[in-house]
UniProtKB/TrEMBL annotation:
Organism (species): Comamonas endophytica
Entry text on domains: Comprises two domains: an N-terminal domain containing the nucleotidyltransferase activity and a C-terminal HD domain associated with both phosphodiesterase and phosphatase activities.
The protein's name: Multifunctional CCA protein
Sequence positions that bind CTP: G11, R14, R94, R144, R147
Keyword Transcription part of the UniProt annotation: no
Chemical reaction(s) catalysed: a tRNA with a 3' CCA end + 2 CTP + ATP = a tRNA with a 3' CCACCA end + 3 diphosphate; a tRNA precursor + 2 CTP + ATP = a tRNA with a 3' CCA end + 3 diphosphate
Assembly behavior: Monomer. Can also form homodimers and oligomers.
PROSITE patterns cross-referenced by the UniProt entry: HD
Protein keywords: ATP-binding, Hydrolase, Magnesium, Metal-binding, Multifunctional enzyme, Nickel, Nucleotide-binding, Nucleotidyltransferase, RNA repair, RNA-binding, Transferase, tRNA processing
CDD domains cross-referenced by the UniProt entry: HDc (cd00077), NT_ClassII-CCAase (cd05398)
Length: 418
């Protein structure tokens, strides 16, 4: 039996070597039994994993372990931890070499490091490389590699790792991923600096076709070159995501960008490169994905508005007050102005996510925002009181309020804001 050793491992070591901020620390404990850990005051996390929380810092301490698979997919784990498992054995079953380094507790960021699998070498070479065949044991790692590619934009996936990921997908390993885990990884990847790289990697290994066939289908679908110099729909959607990242857009906006044009993938061949009515089809396909991946409600709702209305928002420059009010009503903008503002942000990303048009102005956003502010400035209570004084009831009161809002927009338009 080895003597008890507690080391920092994984992301914290990697990020420290990269000079990036370290948020959470993960620890590996070698040479200990669960009973010893509990005697030292650590709290066990769950029954299945030999993971403990530090009594004060609440950081995760995992006993060195080897894992062996008993079934397919994420649920098929049997975890084997014992005080005989060495550090090297533990590191061998981790996902990537850059995540398979361990350092002493008080490590200054350089000097002694346990790096049996070339993590430092791969960090310097900017390579995402799997450690051993044990990579196969957890198909979530396919998503993790894609997510790390989105975070570390200048890293490439090692050819042998991509080949292994392809094999896993071909063997059906991506089919059994739990919806929540897929969404969790996708959401994290969407929030990285280069979200488009996640989809590039997922596409390269075949996982995108399995996880998001509605999205995978967009590559090879042409759009009209007058509006879309990049032509290819998949390329366009990735450019839209790049714009969203550049604007530091929140998750909902990035997700809405991802799904806004899904309907272009089901356009009849004889209509191409036009996509008449794609917005409704996008909304339906986005709904399907939302259900399948259990996407949170706020992301789904925003994506729905953007899918249905992005064309109308792009073409909103000449709308009169009544038409603007109808747009606001379809978007439920009066009740949900913040969501509408996010929808406008997604539309701006869509407008700029086109080859050579990345810097274009998007006056629609400010104009619609200002028009909505006018509509919101109407005092509902006052208008309703007036309507009631005139003997109106029920829906007629609502109509009077809507009318007053339209009037407010009309006044503002007449004072011409440009
Ligand atoms: N499916 C997984 C999940 C985690 N790990 C290992 O557990 C460590 C900690 O996992 P996690 O905190 O999820 O990832 P980090 O690498 O710390 O990255 P992040 O910055 O996203 O926390 C990883 O570095 C890796 O060694 C793994 O091998 N396979
Ligand atoms: Mg971590």
């Amino acid at each position: 039996m080895t003597s008890l050793q507690i080391l920092t491992v994984g992301g914290a070591v990697r990020d420290q070597l990269l000079g990036r901020p370290v948020n959470d620390r993960d620890w590996v404990v070698v040479g200990a039994t669960p009973e010893q850990m509990q005697a030292l005051g650590y709290q066990p996390v769950g029954r299945d994993f030999p993971v403990f929380l530090h009594p004060e810092t609440h950081e995760e301490y995992a006993l060195a372990r080897t894992e062996r698979k008993s079934g397919r997919g994420y649920r098929g784990f049997v975890v084997q931890a014992s005080p005989d498992v060495t550090l090297e054995e533990d590191l061998a079953r981790r996902d990537l070499t850059i995540n398979a380094m361990a350092a002493p507790a008080e490590w200054p960021g350089s000097g002694t490091l346990s790096d049996p699998y070339g993590g430092q070498r791969d960090l310097e070479a900017r390579v995402l490389r799997h450690v051993t065949e044990a990579f196969r044991e957890d198909p979530v790692r396919i998503l993790r590699v894609a997510r790390f590619a989105a975070r570390f934009a200048d890293f490439s996936v090692a050819p042998e790792t991509l080949a292994l990921m392809r094999e896993m997908v071909a063997a059906g390993e991506a089919n059994d991923l739990v919806a929540e885990r897929v969404w969790q990884e996708l959401a994290r990847g969407l929030m990285e600096a280069a979200p488009e790289r996640m989809f590039e990697v997922l596409r390269d290994c075949g996982a995108l076709e399995v996880l998001l066939p509605e999205l995978a289908r967009l590559w090879g679908v042409p759009q009209r070159a007058e509006y879309h110099p990049e032509v290819d729909t998949g390329v366009h959607v990735m450019m839209v995501l790049q714009q969203a990242a550049r604007m530091n857009a929140p998750l909902g906006v990035r997700y809405a960008c991802l799904v806004h044009d899904l309907g272009k993938g089901t356009t009849a061949a004889e209509v191409l490169p036009r996509h008449i009515g794609h917005e409704q089809r996008s909304a339906r396909l986005a709904w399907k994905i939302g259900e399948r991946l259990r996407v949170p409600g706020d992301c789904r709702d925003l994506a729905d508005v953007v899918a249905r209305e992005h064309g109308n928002i792009h073409r909103s420059q000449d709308l009169n007050a009544a038409a603007l009010m109808r747009l606001f009503e379809r978007c439920d903008a009066i009740r949900q102005p913040r969501r509408f503002a996010l929808a406008l942000m997604a539309c701006e990303c869509d407008a700029r996510g086109r080859l050579g048009l990345e810097e274009r102005e998007y006056p629609q956003r400010a104009r619609l925002q200002a028009a909505l502010d006018q509509a919101l400035s109407v005092s509902t209570a006052e208008v309703a009181a007036q309507a009631m004084a005139q003997g109106r009831t029920g829906p007629a009161i609502g109509a009077a309020v809507a009318h007053a809002r339209t009037q407010a927009i009309a006044h503002w338009l007449a004072s011409d804001p440009g």
